[in-house]
Amino acid sequence: MIRKEEVTAVGELVKPHGIAGEMVMTTVYDGLFDDMEDPYLICDMDGILVPFFIESYRPRGGSSLLVKLDYVDDDRAARRFAHHTVYYPIDRLPEDDPEGDEPTWERFVGYQLTDTAGHAVGTVESVDTSTANVLFSVDREGEELLIPVAVEVVRTVDHAARRIAVDMPEGLLDLN
């Protein structure tokens, strides 16, 4: 059984492409499946993380692929996967995954967010990159908290523990 703490979000199956079962997959990782003998991806299907083997894939523009899964042979079957987050085992991510000056914030979905003192803030549920200020949407005891994030505020990242510590803007946690 695949456990949630063993995987991280790496993209999304957006929509079917054509009528033969191909799907558009967005991802921030270059060469995600390149070094695999039997490439696969993982989707949450009704609360269960399920691996799906990839029959074929090919690049489509800068940050997307066209993916064909085994046994998904028409657009009707492909529509079942539309808007599903794609997960991948943390320990299998490419070595050259984005870190440096402009990290890919989506990789932190599912991570525990803490302040610099180590106090738990909540779990990163999603990332909003639609504006100039990137925001983590954090689940804090059932309530959504939007945390602005930038390279300058990230203090430590522990991928093994799936934890990220950030300098919290003063007074942000006191807002209701």
From TrEMBL:
Residues 10-91 form the RimM N-terminal domain. GO terms for molecular function: ribosome binding. It comes from the Bacteria. The keyword Cytoplasm applies. Pfam families: PRC_RimM (PF24986), RimM (PF01782). Keywords: Chaperone, Cytoplasm, Ribosome biogenesis, rRNA processing. GO terms for biological process: ribosomal small subunit biogenesis; rRNA processing. Its main location: cytoplasm. Gene3D superfamilies: PRC-barrel domain (2.30.30.240), RimM (2.40.30.60). One of its GO terms (cellular component) is cytoplasm. It is found in: Cytoplasm. Belongs to the RimM family. An accessory protein needed during the final step in the assembly of 30S ribosomal subunit, possibly for assembly of the head region. Essential for efficient processing of 16S rRNA. May be needed both before and after RbfA during the maturation of 16S rRNA. It has affinity for free ribosomal 30S subunits but not for 70S ribosomes. Binds ribosomal protein uS19. The PRC barrel domain binds ribosomal protein uS19. This is Ribosome maturation factor RimM. The gene is rimM.
